[in-house]
Amino acid sequence: MTQLIGSHNRRMALTWTWLSLVVAIAAAIVAALPGPLYRYGLISITDAFYMVMYGAWTGIAAVLAGIVGVVATILTRRFRMLGVAVLAIAIGLVTFIWPYTINRNAHIAPPIHSISTDTEHPPPFTALADVRRNSLNGLVYGGNPGGNLAGAELSALRGFFNRPAGRASPRRKMAMKACRSWGPDCLAAVQAAYYPAIRPLELPHVPPDAAYAAALEAARDMGWDIAAANGGNRHIEATATSFWFGFKADIAIDVGAATGGGSIVNIRSESRRGLTDLGANARRVHTFLDNVQQNLPEPRS
């Protein structure tokens, strides 16, 4: 009888261990597939995010099953199977953490899809004008104030203003006042309130042509598809494509002569679709401006 009980317990340990790994692999597949499926137009963005969330919760189930598997393998002394259960837990955690991070960014980032270092005169899209005009978010800075998305933008912003992340900014009331209607003033006020560090890159000792060369090199280094690079007016346009989902954002860059000498670099990064970019455009702008400074020629001694 004791042997039968021991044999049954060992089988249960094996069952839970392998079950946890199978569930973890299934969770990873469910969470990973939506990216390529959406990228190639096989599912909608809504369906893609639902699949990612299903994968995340399945990952949690794999973690729980893996914990049971760990306990069972230890109690039955099937230590060779311990690694399988630990692997299942690791896969389940990774599968959950990635969607959790996306969801967290959705709650802490303001629901806007455009960032510009110069909100009064954002760098224009000319080479990409037709692409922008045909995109859901449009060509005009401020997301087409009279378009179909205006109401959705305002609704998303009002919800954000009432969340902890929205209430955290000392400029919240200013942004709320500006966002009584959707348009450039609203977008600029939200950016000023929640991305105050976004501003033009001033290079007082760098000639404009040298700054333009550094900006073009930085754009290429970031893997963007360059649509236009005009050294005459020092204007660059490019498109960034996210690795997994293939989300596209268009970038316009102007490099000009600063009033007191040197040069000034402005960049505008704008998603083609979606009410919110989850903070991606702000991160892209920060990274680009940092890279420009790194690409500048060493000052002559």
Give a verbal description of the structure.
The protein has 301 residues and is of the alpha+beta class. It folds into 2 domains: 2-108; 114-295, Alpha-D-Glucose-1,6-Bisphosphate, Chain A, domain 4. It contains 11 helices and 6 strands. Strands 1, 2, 3, 4, 5 and 6 form a 6-stranded antiparallel β-sheet that branches. The N and C termini lie far apart (88 Å). Residues 1-6 have low confidence and may be disordered.
Sheet of most strands = 6 strands, antiparallel
What is the overall number of helices? 11
Q: Kindly state the mean pLDDT as a whole number?
A: 90
What is the CATH third-level topology name of the largest domain?
A: Alpha-D-Glucose-1,6-Bisphosphate, Chain A, domain 4
Succession of helices and strands: HHHHEHHHHHEHEEEEH
The count of β-strands is: 6
Quaternary class: single chain
List the uncertain runs: 1-6
Distance from first to last alpha carbon: 88 Å
Beta-sheet strand percentage? Answer: 5-15%
Radius of gyration: 25 Å
- CATH architectural type of the largest domain: 2-Layer Sandwich
Q: What structural class should be given to the helix and strand makeup?
A: alpha+beta
Q: Globular, elongated, flat, extended or rod-shaped: what is the shape?
A: elongated
- Percent of residues in helices comes to 40-55%
CATH class of the largest domain reads Alpha Beta
Quickly count the domains: 2
